[in-house]
Design brief:
Length: 955
């Protein structure tokens, strides 16, 4: 029989199953599922892919756009062909419905993962259809690997071994099964129109095609999609496919994947009332529009002082890149959860200002369930939290999850993602996304579903904020990711206030290398952007454009200000002076001296502490050491650090951001004792600032939040002065810099020592910002050897050697796990040559923290989340989604070593152990009668204090 006959009702065997629902005892024919996925892949191509992605795939296949679309549908549909194998036996009920002819012809078939069975069986069918399949990089082999990769990992094809036709036929059943696979293959090819044979399959195109297939498979695997079809009257394959094609646009629309174009709005409306672009922004808008219109996408590096308007520049650059038609949407990457929460508010406001009908903005980090702006809109009601901390091994598409009725949106906000986009790893697919750096960097690691991540990244403009904050380990990973984004034609914007020139050059060249311009060909290019200013490198020909001198000078003139950066030697409590030495000013005494005028006469101040223990000690001291006006320290003195329960930390961060913002009612008196948590991308302004010694780039970032907004009236006792950042240098009794032992693991000690040495040599004269910023950055964060030559103490210091060794070690460890460059990928299995689970894959060097859940043990042993006993834990039943969110919002991260000595008392309830987000929690069971009594974990003792957060002591 031919394909036309097979397409008719009763024309082909439909008894082999692809989906089975135990609750409804519903069986769905495998062929129908394959046709569903093919139809959905076509609509994903039409409505989710951008023009640039479609052209890249077509060029990578050597086909026209129409031919490429048909082939992508065909490939996606073939994904489960390997279920025509011993897979059919794994469920007794649907197996009993398989035809007698097939059941009698199993022979000695062997169990194997169905994705591998699909890859092996399709390989030979492709060869029969004219696809070259004799080498690992031939089109037939690569297409087979795409099909085998639909569960997230590319598999190795042993052409002369396990994938040999004779061995495959022995393993996958007798002639009846072979014939049915061949007929399904031919029918799919006929219905999708995929008659053209690709002349090539490029690696970037293969990665994107794999991502399309994964999306289509997950959409088709949703229970609410296939179950009604399984219970409907029988159709022939042709009729079913025609209906699937008609249904597919609605399915993709309801998933939230359909891309939209933001309508044009005036600059003032898009950016929260800003009257006009500043000189740097105007330069980028004018020159970048012309350059992108002529050269196409590329990489843009923007260097500007804190508060100079980099975020607006990035959003305008994204608008220009997207307008050229190759991309649509924005992915904004930041280093920490606190900064992503702040950027989420900004991007959501930007999207909403365009008044789209519906444009989801998703938030992706491992604790996005803490963000109330994101979660309050029914996120807790029906769906799992948006988190990439876990990628399920099973297909999670079968969970109906309280799907809204057709046309219904969560609440009123058009920026809230629909349910499908909130689930697990799918949130990155939203057209507008804010995420931590880690979420994107995982695309450059051999983790499961890395192809899906890469597809999600490359369809929009990627903004990488706070690039200077990346340590060498993450920077190496970012370089490889930029290489791949260059290969995929994805525009990138890098933002920083303190980026050394050699690092910006390295990142730009990595992008250009992926775009087809090898490092030797770009070695002569000066890829260092002016400061302040911007630089654009075109992916098409590696040509450069940059801000003009007049615009750079005008921008610097507009933002020029003078500020003091004063180094103050102090004695840290960890340092004990000999008895016969004169008394010295202690760290707490200097902080008290600087903050006393604020407590007495008003103003807003920030005290940055190197460690959480220092922050807790400082907060406790300031509560009692100062004479607080207006009713004492409560409501005027706050402690913010990373070891507060998630819900408390998120609420306090929002309160501080609101109080210290450029608009709104500014409090008469506010002091924040904090750690680096308040460092980056928070648009705040303070009158007084004190900081523990830190690398110079960090101090310059903090300085940008001192007197940031010109329109704010300073306290009367500060009038006539200028902003002043007091840097506390811990010294020994001889005046030499002595870092406390607890500070040394935080960052390279050499950078802090170098900062102290440089500031000590520098004349005590004000800094001119932004003119002096790049010179300061290069002096400390540029060439370590050159810096050491300027200071005898640094030259003799062992910390310089350790700093260089640490940098090389981080780069080496990062390179161990990176996926290869696209041109070094001979087989797609090279992209998964290591079996890394995302929970184990490291995007930063160091031990993965554990999450601690403080609870209270009531009389009778019952556990609750609060000391009053009003929020009991679901110990003996599976928690609901809302309960899971509440539990997670009460967790906090701790070093794994602190809880290594846990016992049976610290284990979670048995009913939680199979839940991905709860399984790794460690309980901190506190006695409700004496909650301040520490809980022992080996030599570590922990307890949660209502004001201080988690308190840690060690034997």
């Amino acid at each position: 029989m031919g394909v036309r006959e097979d397409a008719r009702r009763s024309g082909i065997d439909l008894t082999s199953w692809g989906k089975f629902d135990r609750g409804a005892w519903a069986v769905y024919p495998l062929l129908f599922h394959l046709l569903d996925v093919a139809a959905l892949a076509g609509v994903v191509w039409d409505r989710y892919l951008t023009c640039g992605q479609r052209r890249l795939i077509a060029a990578g296949l050597g086909l026209t756009l129409a031919e490429a679309r048909c082939l992508v549908m065909f490939i996606a549909g073939l994904h489960d062909l390997g279920k025509l194998s011993a897979f059919q036996e794994q469920e007794a009920y649907p197996w009993a419905r398989v035809s007698d002819t097939l059941r009698a012809d199993i022979r000695n078939w062997q169990r194997m993962p169905h994705e591998r069975a699909s890859m092996h069986s399709v390989l030979h069918l492709l060869a029969e259809a004219g696809y070259p399949a004799d080498t690992s990089d031939s089109p037939g082999v690569l297409v087979a690997q795409i099909i085998g990769g639909h569960h997230g990992r590319f598999l190795q094809v042993d052409i002369g071994g396990a994938a040999k036709a004779s061995r495959v036929n022995l393993a996958l059943g007798g002639p009846a099964w072979q014939d049915l696979r061949r007929r399904y293959f031919a029918l799919l090819r006929h219905l999708t129109g995929a008659t053209a044979v690709p002349s090539d399959v490029s690696v970037p195109a293969a990665v994107l095609i794999t991502g399309i297939g994964i999306i289509a498979d997950r959409l088709a695997s949703q229970r609410h999609y296939w179950l009604p079809k399984a219970q409907a009257p029988a159709f022939g394959a042709g009729e079913h496919y025609a209906q699937a094609v008609r249904d597919a646009p609605t399915v993709v629309e309801e998933s939230g994947l359909t891309r939209i174009t933001l309508p044009q709005v005036p600059f003032t409306q898009a950016h929260g009332g800003l009257e006009r672009p500043n000189a740097l922004q105007a330069s980028a808008i004018g020159k970048l529009t012309a350059a992108v219109g002529k050269k196409g996408p590329g990489i843009l590096v923007v260097i500007d002082a804190t508060g100079g308007g980099k975020s607006v520049t990035a959003l305008e650059a994204a608008r220009i890149f997207n307008a050229c038609g190759n991309t649509a949407g924005i992915l904004w990457l930041l280093p920490t959860m606190a900064t992503t929460d702040a950027a989420y508010d900004l991007l959501e406001a930007y999207v909403a200002a365009h008044h789209p009908e519906h444009a989801p903005v998703s938030l992706v980090h491992s604790h996005s369930y803490d963000n109330t702006a994101y979660s309050d809109h029914r996120l807790a009601a029906h769906e799992p939290s948006t988190s990439d901390a876990y990628w399920p091994d099973a297909d999670d598409g079968d969970d109906d999850g309280g799907r809204p009725a057709a046309g219904e949106r969560p609440e009123e906000r058009v920026t809230v993602p629909d349910g499908w986009l909130r689930g697990w790893d799918r949130a990155l697919l939203a057209q507008f996304t804010v995420a931590t750096h880690d979420q994107a960097l995982m695309a450059a690691l051999p983790v499961r579903f890395s192809a899906l991540r890469m597809l999600a990244l490359c369809g929009r403009t990627v903004i990488v904020d706070e690039v200077h904050a990346l340590p060498p380990f993450m920077r190496q990973t970012l370089s490889r990711l930029l290489h791949w984004l260059g290969a995929l034609g994805c525009p990138v914007v890098l933002l920083s206030a303190t980026l050394p020139g050699h690092i910006s050059s390295q990142l730009v060249r990595s992008y250009l290398d992926g775009a087809g311009h090898p490092h030797p060909a770009t070695a002569h290019l000066d890829c260092r952007p002016p400061c302040p200013g911007w630089l654009y490198a075109a992916a098409s020909d590696a040509s450069l454009a940059r801000i003009g001198p007049a615009a750079a000078d005008a921008h610097a003139d507009r933002h020029r200000r003078r500020a003091d950066l004063r180094l103050r030697p102090v004695r840290h409590p960890s340092c004990t002076d000999p008895e016969d030495t004169p008394a010295r000013e202690s760290r707490l005494e200097r902080i008290t001296h600087e903050i006393a005028p604020v407590a007495r006469s008003g103003g807003c101040a920030a005290v940055y502490c190197a460690t959480m223990a220092d922050a807790q000690t400082t907060y406790t001291h300031l509560r009692t050491a100062l004479d607080w006006s207006d009713g004492g320290p409560d409501g005027q003195l706050f402690l913010l650090h990373g070891r507060l329960p998630g819900h408390q930390r998120e609420a306090l961060t929002r309160r501080i951001r609101t109080a210290l913002a450029s608009a709104g009612d500014r409090p008469g008196r506010l002091v924040v004792v904090t750690t680096s948590l308040l460092d980056m991308s928070l648009d705040i302004d303070v009158d007084v600032m004190v900081s523990d010694l830190a690398p110079l780039r960090t101090l310059l970032q903090r300085l940008g939040r001192l007197w940031r907004f010109d329109h704010i009236e300073r306290p009367a006792w500060l009038c006539g002065g200028r902003p002043r950042l007091i840097v506390l240098e811990p010294t020994d009794h001889r005046g030499r810099t002595l870092l406390p032992p607890a500070w040394r693991p935080l960052d390279s000690p050499f950078l802090s020592l170098a900062t102290a040495a440089y500031l000590a040599r520098r004349p005590e004269q004000p800094l001119t910002l932004p003119d002096d910023v790049q010179q300061l950055v290069e002096a400390v964060h540029g060439d370590a050897d050159a810096l050491a030559r300027t200071d005898a103490t640094l030259r003799r210091s062992r910390s310089r050697t350790l700093h260089q060794a640490r940098t090389r070690t981080e780069e080496h460890h990062s390179a161990l796990h990176l996926v290869p460059a696209w041109y070094d990928t001979l087989s797609l299995s090279d992209l998964h040559r290591q079996n890394l689970h995302p929970r184990e894959a490291a995007t930063r060097l160091g031990a993965t923290p554990r999450r601690l859940l403080p609870v209270y043990r009531m009389s009778g042993g019952r556990l609750t989340l609060d000391a009053a006993g009003t929020r009991p834990l679901p110990e003996h039943r599976k928690p609901t989604t809302a309960q899971i969110r509440t539990i997670l919002q009460h967790t906090l991260p701790v070093p794994a070593a602190w809880v290594a000595g846990r016992t049976r008392d610290h284990r979670i309830p048995a009913s939680w152990r199979n839940h991905a987000l709860l399984a790794d929690l460690v309980l901190l069971p506190q006695d409700v009668g004496d909650p301040s009594r520490p809980v022992r974990f080996g030599r570590h003792r922990l307890h949660l204090d209502g004001a201080l957060g988690l308190v840690h002591t060690e034997d």
